[in-house]
Design goal:
The chain has 16 helices and 7 strands. By secondary structure, the protein is of the alpha+beta class. It starts with a helix and ends with a strand. A hairpin with a 2-residue loop joins β4 and β5. InterPro entries: Cyt_P450, Cyt_P450_E_grp-I, Cyt_P450_sf, Cytochrome_P450_fam2.
């Protein structure tokens, strides 16, 4: 038994050394990639990331900030599990990547959880020619339905009236503005995507909002770290219960809702008169029936619709909540905004875009709120489209990256 035991120990040591050397080669064989903090084989910098304050949604960005400002400068490399990531930090580095070398940095990277949910379809998580076609179609369709035009302005004014009435019904008692703001913003998106707004008590609409808030809460909480682990170890996490499984389940609920709306639209579709985004997409599908390579299919319709609904609802309602919080913290700023609103708009009508040029202070405050908040600390994943020379480094083709609102870029 003793020789067998010694042989087993020797075998384990040899295998461990081979794994270590193999992983170390991968970690150190970065060629002309920028340097970064020491990473463990297999798990990379995962332990450092998990050691952060998981209650802070900007924690990962703060971690990046500490690294680059202390030692590595505006460009450095870390490892998310076995995934090698280059981080770009600061306005100059980000501008150079996104503006000066925009074509090279225009690809869409991959995250395992995003691939599981979207499967490469839709606008946000698609890539290459699919992304170009769907993005171009979405922008054209939204413009046709009044994005930036008077028709959308009227929808916003109408929804604002419903929101104000709902706030009045609180009878000046303390209340949480999260749900009313989310309902109002979501209804404006719904009117463009689904063709109509929903009553605030509509059960299907409430289900959608609840699913949206549940997903947001998952990402804001401790459970976000478990969701992040899915991106590091997707095969393992598929078999482990946790919040990532709830995100996948919620995604299926969203899909069922859109499929139901799509069926309703098909039954009343007028090819000469599209009513909303779904109608326009169905007409495009009809036009491209003979094209076997067409990107206009049911899968991309469902995902594109969800992308517009979720992205539009989450970002705008969160911005409004932050705006209210900031104005509460700075009552002197709120007072000046209030004075300008009373002076230009008054109390007898709704605001309109034409008022903007006459309200420079309010306009500046809105821009400062948007600058101040950090909506998506890591944003959506990107990738360079070819081997890219960036400053003194070389980033290989298809290298995954994330663009951050706070002018940090992760590649």
């Amino acid at each position: 038994m003793e020789p067998l035991g010694a042989t087993t120990v020797f075998f384990v040591i040899c295998v461990s050394c081979l794994l270590f050397l193999s992983a170390w080669r991968k970690l150190s064989g970065s060629g002309k990639l920028p340097p970064g903090p020491v990473a463990f084989p297999i798990i990379g910098n995962t332990l450092q990331l998990l050691a952060l304050d998981v209650g802070d949604p900007c924690s990962f960005s703060n971690y990046n900030s500490r690294i680059d400002t202390v030692k590595y400068g505006p460009i450095f490399t870390i490892y998310l599990g076995s995934l090698r990531v280059v981080v770009l930090y600061g306005q100059e580095a980000v501008k150079e990547a996104l503006i000066d070398q925009g074509d090279e940095f225009s690809g869409r990277g991959k995250l395992a959880l995003a691939d599981k949910l979207a499967k490469g379809t839709g606008i946000i998580f698609s890539n290459g020619e699919r992304w170009k076609q769907l993005r171009r179609f979405a922008l054209t369709t939204l413009r046709n339905f009044g994005m930036g035009k008077k028709s959308v302005e009227e929808r916003i004014q109408e929804e604002a009236c419903f929101l104000v009435e709902r706030l009045r019904n609180t009878h000046e008692r303390p209340f949480d503005p999260t749900i009313p703001l989310t309902h109002a913003v979501s209804n404006i998106i719904c009117s463009i995507v689904f063709g109509d707004r929903f009553d605030y008590e509509d059960q299907k609409f409430l289900t959608l909002i609840n699913l949206t808030e549940e997903n947001n809460e998952l990402f804001r909480s401790l459970l976000a770290q478990v969701c992040s682990l899915y991106n590091f170890f997707p095969t393992l996490m598929d078999y482990i219960p946790g919040p990532h499984q709830l995100l996948i389940k919620n995604s299926e609920e969203f899909k069922r809702f859109v499929l139901e709306r799509m069926k309703m639209h098909k039954e009343s579709l007028d090819l000469s008169c599209p009513r909303d985004f779904i109608d326009a997409f169905l007409i495009k599908m009809e036009q491209e029936q003979q094209n076997d390579q067409s990107e206009f299919n049911t899968e991309n319709l469902v995902r594109s619709t969800l992308d517009l609904f979720l992205a539009g609802t989450g970002t705008t309602s969160t911005t409004l909540r932050h705006g209210l919080l900031i104005l509460l913290k700075y009552p002197d700023i709120e007072e000046k905004v209030h004075e300008e609103i009373d002076h230009v708009i008054g109390r007898s009508r709704s605001p309109c875009m034409a008022d903007r040029s006459q309200m420079p202070y309010t306009d500046a405050v809105i821009h400062e709120i948007q600058r101040f908040i950090n909506l998506v600390p890591l944003n959506v994943p990107h990738a360079v489209t070819r081997d890219t020379h960036f400053r003194q480094y070389v980033i290989p083709k298809s290298f995954p990256n994330l663009f951050d609102v706070e002018t940090r870029v992760v590649i």
